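To: structure subgroup
Subject: Chain for Friday's discussion

All,

I'm putting the inputs and outputs inline so they're searchable in the archive.
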Amino acid sequence: MAFNRSGFESTTAGLALARTIGRDGLRAPTLKVVAEEANMAVSTLHKWFAGRENMLPHATAGFAGIYWEEIARRVNLRGWAGYLPSTGDELFFLRAWLGIEELARTNDDVGEAVRYLWHNVRFWLSSSIGRELTDYESGGLVILLRGLWDGLCSADPVEPDLAQQLWAAAYSALHDDLDSAQAA
């Protein structure tokens, strides 16, 4: 299935889906709930997507585009630390993203949209480090990032400073490898 992350319909529904999940959790987001959040009629969403099951992966792709553009903006402003949230708004949208990832566990089409995005994230991580990462390195970073995100949003959250220190240590270790390779 091809997803148009930048399409008006996908981004509108995606933002409404993210707000719904961020506020209400994974209680099945219906067309009605998402339409109310988007301030539109259910018939409009139904016309765009022909039902809830078609809306979910497209809305996921739409929100993914919004969410990861925001992360890219933060990384450009704050460097490596921008991958982790630092404000209440950033944490709210992280919770929404984690909810969408959870939804992907039970919906293959949503899972496809999420997998496509994580493929791109591995490239972005390599770009942030400044060298091509091995599958082991990029996989480890993805696992660490997801773990830190989950820890920041849990009922007993990890301290944001500790999360930043762990994330910075991963960057330092990989960046030091780059410096060592260039010195040799």
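Points worth raising on Friday:
The two ends are 46 Å apart (CA to CA).
The chain has a mean pLDDT of 82.

D.
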